[in-house]
DNA sequence: ATATTTTTTTAGACTAATCTAAATTTTTAT
DNA sequence: ATAAAAATTTAGATTAGTCTAAAAAAATAT
């Protein structure tokens, strides 16, 4: 069984590796975990000994099949708890992250399966991120940043790339939510900002950064 | 802020001291925490330095006002989570303890207040134990062991003294639950066992130990 | 191609929580 | 009242996770 800290490292490596596809550097892990490279090296050795990652000195790590599965189970728990907090306890989507960071480490498969059932087997969390099922399977929907959309087609907001509380609060303020329908009215040459229409009733300008951080389907 | 371990020690001391009224010995703590006396001495010093307990060498510890409050907050969280697991996730009352032991350490006052509200401010948990409110207040209802009841008055089962999974499973099996109405039909001289009627429809014999572990109001 | 910079690893130390073994204090028994 | 037993504390060691400083390797820049 993995420790609290091991689970956190493994999850960080999973996310940094694009869901387990590419290698991750010691320094990247140190940055996202807010630790020093020396500490990361120590933990890398531990996870490597448990066959959760493949480690080659000085060349970073790659997550193994087993490691990917363990990481997915933590991600599953995190996202189910976030869904619970928003749907059942009336948290707003910008308040759930830190609490879910704690809840994701509760060890009880009975709990998580019952929670999943209670929530009626959701496939995405409050930020639009997919929830792995019991076996680790994810339903991936191809999404692109709003900043890369063209023309006047109907666009649906599917998820946020990075869900910082301040970005999420901003979205709420301007009326953007997961599932919202938007259309692009104009693109400003000067700074790449967009004028968009939300739900056919509200016009707003959003910056290029914001548009790059909103993932949509056309 | 208290560590996971400090919270557990404090909670154990609270329970062993009859809700903070009497002194507790090092060896008692060691026994319930499954640790050695030497480890307990170390932790006692830590909690004492934080003014959560009053410690006199060789004479055990007494919980302070502040320590009692901290312990009550952990107890509150434990019992609210148990209530959630049974009422919302359909756990049975013998399955909740170990999971609640983990959940009680989640740090978020927003979470616990919202959970309380979601459960509609319950006053007792699935084992009939009182749930402290936000400020630590407990509604104590005077209860006596079923073994000490006399005559044929109407008796209501209020709580279990010690809720081990096996005892709880046994109660379910014979049809006893919190709130059940029982009456005493006969007391066996030989071994102190009782013949009782449950909800005016089922007669069973229960041992003296079982009767001592069931708390009721007459 | 070699020197400089950057990244990574190693070595050694620290804290929290635990342990065993030894020393000390209290309790119990005669 | 004193000796034996039991409980408690102290001393010193261990493990997980972290750190700083130094050494080693890789990347980069001229």
TrEMBL record, chains A, B:
Presence of keyword Cytoplasm: yes
Protein known as: Transcriptional regulator MntR
Coiled coil: none
Keyword check for Iron: yes
Superkingdom of origin organism: Bacteria
Compartments where located: Cytoplasm
Keywords noted in UniProt: Activator, Cytoplasm, DNA-binding, Iron, Manganese, Repressor, Transcription, Transcription regulation
Broad class of where this protein is predominantly found: cytoplasm
Similarity comment: family membership: Belongs to the DtxR/MntR family.
InterPro entries: DtxR_MntR_Metal-Reg, Fe-transptr_FeoA-like, Fe_dep_repressor, Fe_dep_repressor_sf, FeoA_core_dom, HTH_DTXR, Iron_dep_repressor, Transcriptional_repressor_C
Known role: In the presence of manganese, represses expression of mntH and mntS. Up-regulates expression of mntP.
